[in-house]
């Protein structure tokens, strides 16, 4: 079987993403004239319109992050059903954890569809920065577990991940040049995107002149504090083929992770065998590739959760794009720069500008880009891309991953 | 933003801890200026933060072991400023505890210039007042350096 034929039949392919929708992406505070549920509703209606479906026909909701909208707000299924005019809800569930489950929420939608519980399932995330993400932990009430981390002054997720970053630099000789390359290459991908928050090139001098937020991480290693909402509609592959858009099959999806990663940044006890200085995604990558019958070499475009630049590097290692510890030299070779032509030993990473430069909606924009790449409609399209990898955030378990494909 | 100063811990009134039955012995000991860690009474594995079950053998039996207070820096960061405290310099660290292998603490190095902290730097425990009369274990650079393991 030729590679293209093999890839067209690999994996699950029993469900497909048929609609994506999003609000504009706003800077912090800019969407304050609307409630977070209005933002979410706009995204849901846009995703249904994209699919050629009425929102009345939605019968399932598959959230992640415990159906939280960002950090301060909670989404309620009943509110969406009643206020958007959904006729009957037959499935409503959320992955536990936080942004680690973004990609995996599509697996939750798939589970509902394959089980026959629901047929048209919406996944939605909305975010406003009324509680600033950058210092979210400084504002949180203490818990018995947080009492072992919070007092040290680790005020936000970037502070936590700077500790993994330092260890990676120590163990593998990784340098800040690698993080700069991730920030600059992601920015380069955002320049031609009308919706991107940051559309000016980022220079080496700007990167190294920026203030340190949690040494060794500087301003440009952190994703932005943006606002907006994104929704995704998933249904069965059969139904998908009757809808408006080219179906984007779910080829593989997995969430979870191992005990050695566990609570990750609220524990910091991960073993010193390459687990501590990692993304926690290694077991997800193995399961994802096994279910899909593919390897990293088959992935044409990688939508890697980029809340912090070094976590992109560690995911590239855990997903097998390079060997463990080789992430620095790999990105510095130019391997992740977007190119329309797929070349061996390289992969286009976050051609949508990611959360560093387009918008941060807790991983949901990566799913949208994966769908557009598989439809062939992406602004920075990888020509004839057959497989897109989408990852959830390195975080306390569950973490997750998703492989999207093209239909037959 | 000001120049990096000597690392300190957050002011007492900004640090509020809560406890549960698993963690309370840790904090009660700290209040007496003792650093302790839970060791599984069945398989002798240490664990931190304190939790109800041993992840290696699932036992719920725990012995609280008083530690020497020695630690080494496993990893660290340097943070200039905290919400409401622009001038504070913090060096949050994850430390290995040589007499509680397998257990780590997330804490602060205090009383040192951030540039003097490295992975592997040897530390000794001290205790810093926080809200509600509790004491927080923090660490100072060991002087003179302690002998290695």
What features would you highlight for this structure?
heterodimer, A: 408 residues, alpha/beta, Peroxisomal Thiolase, Chain A, domain 1, B: mainly beta, six-stranded antiparallel β-sheet, two-stranded antiparallel sheet, 1 helix, 8 strands, 36% strand
Folded structure, characterized:
Chain A is an alpha/beta fold. Chain A has a single domain (3-129, 222-405), classed as Peroxisomal Thiolase, Chain A, domain 1. Chain A contains 14 helices and 15 strands. In chain A, strands 1, 2, 3, 6, 7, 10, 11, 12, 13, 14 and 15 form an 11-stranded mixed beta sheet that branches. Chain A has a two-stranded antiparallel ribbon with strand order 4-5. A two-stranded antiparallel ribbon of chain A has the order 8-9. In chain A, strand 14 and strand 15 (399-405) form a beta hairpin. In chain A, helix 7 (176-190) crosses helix 11. In chain A, 60% of the residues are buried. The mean pLDDT of chain A is 96. With 149 residues, chain B is mostly beta strands. Chain B contains 1 helix and 8 strands. Classes of the chains: A alpha/beta (408), B mainly beta (149).
């Amino acid at each position: 079987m030729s590679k293209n034929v093999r890839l067209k039949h690999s994996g699950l392919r029993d469900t497909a993403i048929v609609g994506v929708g999003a609000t504009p992406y706003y800077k912090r505070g800019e969407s304050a004239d609307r409630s977070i549920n209005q933002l979410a509703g706009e995204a849901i209606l846009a995703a249904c319109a994209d699919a050629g479906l009425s929102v009345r026909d939605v019968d399932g909701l598959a959230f992640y992050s415990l159906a939280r909208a960002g950090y301060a707000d909670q989404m309620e299924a009943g509110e969406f059903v009643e206020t958007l005019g959904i006729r009957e809800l037959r499935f409503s569930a959320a992955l536990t954890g936080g942004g680690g489950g973004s990609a995996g929420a599509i697996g939750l939608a798939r589970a509902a569809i394959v089980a026959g519980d629901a047929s048209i399932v919406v996944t939605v995330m909305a975010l406003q920065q009324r509680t600033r993400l950058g210092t979210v932990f400084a504002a949180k009430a203490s818990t018995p577990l947080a009492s072992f981390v919070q007092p040290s002054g680790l005020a936000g997720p970037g502070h936590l991940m700077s500790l993994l970053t330092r260890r990676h630099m120590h163990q593998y000789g990784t340098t800040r040049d690698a993080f700069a390359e991730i920030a600059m290459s992601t920015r380069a991908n955002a320049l031609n995107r009308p919706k991107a928050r940051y559309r000016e090139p980022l220079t080496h001098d700007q990167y190294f002149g920026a203030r340190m937020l949690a040494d060794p991480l500087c301003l440009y290693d952190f994703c932005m504090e943006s606002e907006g909402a994104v929704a995704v509609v998933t249904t069965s592959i059969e139904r998908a083929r009757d809808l408006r858009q080219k179906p984007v099959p779910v080829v593989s999806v997995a969430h979870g992770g191992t005990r050695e990663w566990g609570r990750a940044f609220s524990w910091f006890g991960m073993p010193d065998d390459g687990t501590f200085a990692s993304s926690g995604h290694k077991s997800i990558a193995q399961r994802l590739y096994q279910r899909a019958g593919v390897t990293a070499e088959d992935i044409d475009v990688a939508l890697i959760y980029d809340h912090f630049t070094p976590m992109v590097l560690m995911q590239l290692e855990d997903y097998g794009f390079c060997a463990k510890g080789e992430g620095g030299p790999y990105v510095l070779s130019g391997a992740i720069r977007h190119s329309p032509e797929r070349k061996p030993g390289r992969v286009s990473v976050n051609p949508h500008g990611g959360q560093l430069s387009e918008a941060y909606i807790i991983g949901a924009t990566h799913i949208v880009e994966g769908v557009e790449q598989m439809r062939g409609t992406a602004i920075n399209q990888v020509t004839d891309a057959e497989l897109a990898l989408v990852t959830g955030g390195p975080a306390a378990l569950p973490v997750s991953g998703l492989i999207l494909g093209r239909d037959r | 933003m000001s120049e990096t100063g000597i690392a300190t811990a957050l002011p007492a009134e900004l640090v509020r801890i809560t406890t549960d039955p698993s963690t309370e012995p840790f904090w009660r000991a700290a209040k007496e200026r003792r650093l302790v860690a839970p060791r599984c009474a069945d398989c002798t594995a240490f664990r931190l933060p304190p939790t109800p079950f041993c992840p290696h053998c699932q036992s719920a039996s725990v012995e609280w072991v008083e530690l020497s207070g020695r630690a080494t820096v496993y990893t660290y960061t340097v943070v200039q400023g905290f919400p409401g405290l622009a001038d504070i310099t913090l060096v949050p660290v994850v430390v290995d505890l040589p007499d509680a292998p397998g257990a780590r603490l997330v804490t602060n190095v205090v009383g040192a210039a951030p540039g003097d902290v490295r992975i592997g730097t040897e530390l000794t425990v001290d205790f810093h007042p926080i809200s509600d009369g509790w004491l927080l274990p923090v660490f100072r650079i060991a002087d003179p350096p302690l002998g290695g393991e």
